[in-house]
């Protein structure tokens, strides 16, 4: 796409047309997808999506009706206009998150798409277009004599080379123990990768390491998803390259305030950052470390 070419529809430079379109609400863009094929393709490009999100910031608040296990989950879009208190603009109900989706969690955000999971189910949801997809059950073989499994950390991101969205999840397999007979079994860990293009899961090879899910959930930065890793000699940062499908590690920033502080990873202006803040008390300060380069 040449930045200063003129479109046949408006006669304006294409870069100017896309700049104007990026400021419009999603409902307008949905209608304008039918104007011409170049516009439709541009609306799906990651660069346009990023610009549109920057020009149309939305604040979502997750809530539920009923108890935390069986309640009906909602997202609320809050008004963020300057000089006004927060107010609910829209209320999104999940018809696909009824009972059986206990402990609904947000695991990632990429190009306006949220990755959600509850129990052993995973879904992708675009709150702007209301489109959603429940991911298929994994076909990865489980160990025999399995008692139950748990998901310890999910990651969601975009493969720019193949135009594919991918989900990584860490699965812990537990076995039934017999304390009377003195039978104790260590859990077995597996890592799975889902591809939206193939609509299937596959098993990945990784060293004995577990990923800790972050409540901030915006750990996807420039093609990599990041977790805090544990069950290793040191607490590290574990990263996954969405293009090459490779894991790697790097050290956490040195911080000597012990276990009295939360340590979370996040995307800070397009860079990986680590934030440290107190678990208890009224102190409102925090430390933010940003990785350059």
From TrEMBL:
Residues 12-52 form the F-box domain. Coiled coil: none annotated. Pfam families: F-box, FBA_3. NCBIfam families: F_box_assoc_1. This is F-box domain-containing protein. It comes from Hibiscus trionum.
């Amino acid at each position: 796409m040449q930045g200063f070419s003129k479109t046949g529809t408006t006669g304006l430079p294409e870069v100017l047309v896309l700049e104007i379109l990026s400021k419009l609400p999603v409902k307008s863009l949905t209608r304008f997808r039918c104007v011409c094929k170049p516009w439709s393709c541009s609306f799906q490009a990651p660069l346009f999506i990023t610009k549109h999100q920057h020009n149309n910031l939305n604040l979502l608040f997750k809530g539920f009706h009923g108890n935390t296990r069986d309640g009906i989950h909602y997202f609320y879009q809050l008004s963020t206009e300057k000089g006004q208190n927060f107010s609910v603009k829209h209320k999104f109900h999940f018809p696909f998150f009824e009972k059986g989706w206990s402990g609904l969690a947000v695991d990632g955000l990429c190009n306006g798409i949220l990755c959600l999971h509850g129990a052993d189910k995973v879904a992708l949801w675009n709150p702007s277009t209301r489109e959603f997809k429940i991911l298929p059950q994994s076909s990865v073989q489980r160990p025999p004599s399995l008692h139950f499994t748990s998901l310890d950390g999910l990651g969601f991101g975009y493969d720019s080379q193949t135009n594919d969205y991918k989900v990584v999840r860490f699965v812990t397999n537990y076995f039934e123990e017999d304390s009377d007979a003195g039978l104790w079994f260590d859990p077995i860990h597996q890592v799975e990768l889902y591809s939206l293009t193939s609509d299937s899961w596959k098993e990945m090879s990784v060293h004995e390491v577990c990923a800790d899910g972050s409540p901030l959930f915006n750990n996807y930065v420039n093609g990599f998803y990041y977790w805090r890793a544990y069950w290793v000699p040191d607490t590290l940062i574990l990263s996954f390259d969405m293009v090459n499908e490779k894991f790697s590690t790097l050290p956490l920033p040195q911080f000597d305030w012990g276990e009295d502080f939360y340590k979370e990873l996040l995307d800070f202006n397009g860079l990986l950052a680590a934030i440290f803040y107190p678990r208890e008390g009224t102190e409102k300060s925090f430390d933010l470390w940003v990785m350059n380069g």
